[in-house]
Write the structure tokens for this entry.
Amino acid sequence: MNEEKKCLRCGGTNVKPGVLESTGKIYARPNNANLETFLKTGVIVNVNICFDCGHVEMVIVPDKLKSVTKKSPISYPQG
């Protein structure tokens, strides 16, 4: 079943998936994470783009983030 996406800003349903990019990929990482670990494995930032108002919602895959942070020597609070 395909879940219909709604814009968090305007409530519109003309929302399409995309990827946030620059001249290279942009990754999300916790402030105190091991930079080298994240640069090697990364967590790609996906986006939902509202074609009605232009709002861009950034989304990452939580399981990917959890697996990457386990590789870092820094511990993270759960919850």
Notes: DSSP finds two helices and three strands in the chain. The chain has one domain: 15-70. The first strand starts at residue 15 and ends at 19.
